[in-house]
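We now fix the convention by which a protein and its fold are recorded. The integers have meaning only within a learned vocabulary of local backbone shapes. A complete example follows; check for yourself that the lines match position by position.
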Amino acid sequence: MEKMMGVAVAAFYSLAILLGITGNMDHAVAGDENLLEKIEKSGEVHMGFREGSVPFGFIDKNGSWDGFGIDLGTEVVKDLEKKFNKPIKLVKHPMNPKTRITMVTNGMVAMGIGSTTITLAREEVVDFSLPYFLTGTRLLVPKDSPISSFADIGGKRVGMGSGSTANIKGMDRAIEQGLVKPACKKVLFEEHNKGFLALQQGKIDAYFTDASQLAGMRAKARNPQDWKIVGKYLTYEPYGFILPEGQGEWRDFVNASLIHMIKDGRFEVLYTKWFGPDGVVPLPMTDEYKVLLKSLSYPE
């Protein structure tokens, strides 16, 4: 594990130098430093958010950063302010599927909030909060496409997120099990919005990712009625906040904040804001998701 982490650290710093972002790393969490104590001393907390993942994190038409994930992060900051009885500044950093894990493991951010599935492989290098969102993978296609299920994408060009390893592995399993036959051609994109652009340009035949992401892509299209989401869930995807390993006190605080949001109704208000009938991406909460949230309503 230490060797793997060392390789990851070296790779990250090399990338940071190339991108010219080393100036943002002076707030990195060093070694065993208690993250909660650092936040209290500095009066600020650094969080990573998506820029092209509607409605979890995106740049709106006015150029402002907005989304469900940002609202949840803001609620965590409010709870930090109550705990420390002082203002806490939220410093936002852009992250994408390729950078989100490394930004947490190297201490650039204390938490990454976006559409990130909790997986056992990711648990090897980072920690996660309790799951706060439950969805599954489906397909987005043009309304007149003959594709109506995963059985129809055999031999087709299918786009998916390059950093969405859980989705990629899910598709690989479907191919191995003969659910997609012959194998489709996987076309990888750094961000979902780039994949949707390729779908609009006819460069791919379908886009594959979590249903919540597909609903966001369709909702933001110029003509949403030109697109349809098809296929039953290929996999179930529980989302969690990405947290650094070895910061149990910080993880416990974040989980308690999340549980309190669910219990006092703030979470439902935010869900309705983004996924309700008048939200950016109307997406009724499934029965499985409702049970998940009820199970997280831990007693005090």
